[in-house]
Every structure is written in C-alpha cells, then in structure tokens.
Write a structure and sequence with these properties.
The protein has helices at 12-22, 37-46, 64-74, 89-98, 110-121, 129-140, 156-165, 171-178, 182-196, 201-210, and strands at 3-8, 28-34, 52-55, 79-84, 102-105. It contains 10 helices and 5 strands, in the order E-H-E-H-E-H-E-H-E-H-H-H-H-H-H. The longest helix is centred in the C-terminal third of the chain and has 15 residues, at 182-196.
Length: 214
C-alpha cells in the first residue's frame, strides 16, 4: 500500500521539485498539493486520506506553523514534516510546539527525504543533523518567556474572539458568530496581539491558554 502524501508550499516550482524527488519511489504517492495553509486545510477537509504532509513554513494567508497546529488538532494521526529553507531556533521551536513530527531542509536529496518519511511514519522524528543539534540545544536551554507572568488584561470581547480563534475559525466565521463586522474582529485581533506581545494566531492562543485566559 502506498504512503499518501500532501505537499504544501507557496512556491509551485519547489512543489514540482519535491514531487520529482518522490517520483523515484513506488511506495509514495502525492495525493494533492496546496500553495498556502488555508487552501490546504480546505482540501484536507474534503479528502483527509493522507498519511503524511510535507509542510513549508513561510506562506501567505496561513503559514505552515499555524497549519500544523490546526491539522494536529483535527487529524492527530497525520504525520507532518516541516520541509523548509529556514533552520533558525524560533522556527524549530514553534514547529515542535505546533506538533510537527519532523523537520527537514529543502536541499535534502531524494534518498534522504524518502528515508525521513519512512522514519517518521514508523514513529521516529526525521531531522537534518544540523536541525537535530539545534533541537538538543533548545531542549537544554528552552526559550524563557520573561514576561509570561505579567498581568495580561484583555476585554471580555477580546477573550470571546480568542476563544473563537482557538477553534480554528476564519475571521469571517468569528465575525458571524459574534455578530460583528470582519473589520471589528481584525481590530480586536490587532489589540490582542499587542497585549499578548505575539505575532500570529497560534502564538496568541497558546499564550492565552498558558495564562488561563481561555
């Protein structure tokens, strides 16, 4: 039985390059591709018969870390390998927090990519040597949230918005549920990011949970 794979990357040339690498192996099959996280989530909801996802990090609309978090909430059995050109500590840390099962660089050759996929499917964690070293360093010296214990004051409506975001809803869906305009929702989210000192929905939801806000 072939391993069913999805590829998510905003660069269609790189999608083709990855598909070409996978084409050497008869035990792998690319089910579908997507050019951003939102498109991918929509496709996955229609066809979730996927065993493993090769996920880029930097993408418009919805990035790979947010997408990974949402996939793991809804389809925890699907394995996810971050396939990216970025190997900085923050990306690795956030990808692991979001639930990524492996982290490989796009420059990887076809054979090593195939081995990494099999390793991940068998319960391992595929990582380039350089990534593995950085991961060990992160485990020994985890990021310290210096201002984590500061009192964070959100309005009741901002908490409502955060709770909606934690369910993976779009801005339009949140606006509809709270009977507000999309513009008002975006303003609330802007205020939430500023107060929590975060940069995206995943970080906002995670920090709110750690501080028992939601």
């Amino acid at each position: 039985m072939k391993t069913r794979i999805a590829i998510v990357d905003d660069n269609t040339f790189l999608i083709k390059a990855v598909e070409e690498k996978l084409s050497f192996f008869e035990d792998l099959e690319v089910r579908f591709t997507a050019i951003n996280g939102r498109e991918f989530i929509e496709k996955l909801d229609v066809n979730s018969n996927v065993d493993l996802i090769l996920m880029d990090i930097e993408m418009p609309v919805m990035n790979g870390i947010e997408s990974t978090y949402l996939v793991k909430q809804k389809y925890p059995h699907i394995k996810i390998i971050m396939l990216t050109v970025f190997d900085n500590d923050e990306n690795i840390f956030n990808a692991i927090k979001a639930g990524a099962d492996g982290y490989l660089l796009k420059e990887i050759n076809a054979g090593d990519l195939h081995s990494g996929i099999l390793e991940t499917l068998n319960g391992g964690a595929a990582m380039n040597p350089s990534i593995a070293l950085k991961t060990l360093k992160l485990l020994r010296n985890p990021f310290v949230e210096e201002k984590e214990k500061e009192e964070i004051k959100l309005t009741g409506r901002e908490v409502d918005v955060l709770e909606q975001l934690s369910k993976g809803l779009s801005y339009n869906a949140v606006a509809e549920n709270l009977i507000l305009s999309t513009g008002t929702i975006r303003k609330h989210i802007e205020n939430i990011y500023r107060k929590l000192q975060v940069h995206n929905k995943l970080e906002a939801v995670e920090k709110a949970k750690r501080n028992n806000i939601i």
